Amino acid sequence: MTTESKPKYSLRQLVLYFLKLGYSGFGGPVALVGYMHRDLVEQRKWISEEEYKEGLALAQLAPGPLAAQLGIYIGFVHYGIFGATLAGLAFVIPSFIMVVLLGMAYKLYGGLPWMQAVFYGIGATVIGIIALSSYKLTIKSVSKINVAHIKEKWLLWLLYIVGLAVTVITQSEKVLLFVAAGLIYMYIKAPPEWIKKPLAAHSIFLTAIGFWQFEWNTLGQIAWFFTKAGAFVFGSGLAIVPFLHGGAVIEYKWLTEREFVDAVAVAMITPGPVVITVGFIGYLVAGFPGACMAASATFLPCYLLTVIPAPFFKKIAKNASIKAFVDGITASIIGALVGAVVIIGIRSITDITSAIIALATIIALIYIKKIQEPYIILIAAVIGLIIKTI
Fold first, then answer.
1. What would you report as the CA-atom Rg of the chain, rounded to the nearest whole angstrom?
2. Are 304 and 310 in contact (CB under 8 A)?
3. Of 79, 142, 203, 330, which is least surrounded by CB within 10 A?
């Protein structure tokens, strides 16, 4: 545990809070992080401002889904590893159950015209949402788009452009490129001492919905691929999209382009962490075992990389080399996200109507401040149904 003071809440209260947030928290990682601050710091005063900021800093520095990591850290603050484990599970399980149920429905009805019509509208909307989110991530994590800021952060912009270009050209993610970007930025901006002074080298229904249809070899591939996704992707939930696209669609060919966009849409219309889309992808590939394997493999690195450094984080957070490494990786990954938007958009925006829906989504999110993504997606589903059935 990180503090000696007696908590103002029980572990049961904390678990119930994260259960509720897991089944009712819409809006993506930024919104979920904001809900935790409002509820646990400002209103209930269970967590101090300093403890919250430390957790948020760790979540930003370590790979994995931002909101889930912050929830795990908050569980750790007063109740150690047991609290971190229960808080993380409580936060993830409600949305995992939802995406598995949606996976069953998708397997059962996905080939029907009305379902295809619904996802026609949803798919176009998702492209718009991801495009706008990637822009926001760019100005937040790289710099604002003006001459002065670009000149100041030119190296981050270079890593960003390289990540974008490589993703578009190769149509896949490159983990080694991300790591190299982090090492280059660290070496130039804040080289650690060991670089400065190198001394040495260092049933029928269940069948219809695909519930238990899997192959052991495929489960192994899922375990390895999603472990890499959880261990190497930094930032918001959407940052994982290019990685998942490169593996699930390009490398392993588990999903078609349309199925992948639908999987991202499912994450948008369910509460909890956006990264829970891995459960939906795992279900489509290998049924319920695949969903469990994909979710476990993605969240286990996130969990370990939160609870292991948590007791020592105050010292780690001040390390300029670590911060520079993360900045470099983040710039490259966000560039890859933009590249993935280009690839997915070219393949998914197939006519003028879907282009208009995507553009209208961006405009609505910019100018209608209080509207949330699930409502836009619901409207798009109705529009798609109307267009395709007229």
1. 21
2. no
3. 203
Q: Where are the alpha helices (DSSP H) in the chain?
A: 11-24, 28-36, 49-61, 66-109, 113-141, 147-152, 154-170, 175-189, 193-196, 204-208, 216-232, 241-245, 257-269, 277-307, 313-317, 320-348, 352-367, 373-389
Range of the domain at 332: 100-301+311-389
Assess if residue 142 is contained within a domain.
Answer: yes
**How many folded domains does the chain comprise?**
1
The answer to whether position 107 is within a domain reads: yes
pLDDT tens sequence across 164-181 = 888 788 766 566 787 788
Report the C-alpha gap between 149 and 322 in whole angstroms.
22
Residue 161: Cβ-neighbour burial (10 angstroms; 0-12, 13-18, 19+) = middle
Q: Which residue has the tokens 């993504």?
A: 373
Q: Mean pLDDT score of the chain, rounded to an integer?
A: 81
Q: Which of 30-44, 66-80, 318-332 has the highest mean pLDDT?
A: 66-80
In a domain, 17, yes or no: no
Note the pLDDT of residue 195.
60
In a domain, 122, yes or no: yes
Q: Do the Cβ atoms of 78 and 40 come closer than 8 Å?
A: no
Q: Decide: residue 388, CB within 10 A, 0-12 exposed, 13-18 middle, 19+ buried.
A: middle
Residue 191, φ and ψ in degrees, nearest 5: -65, 130
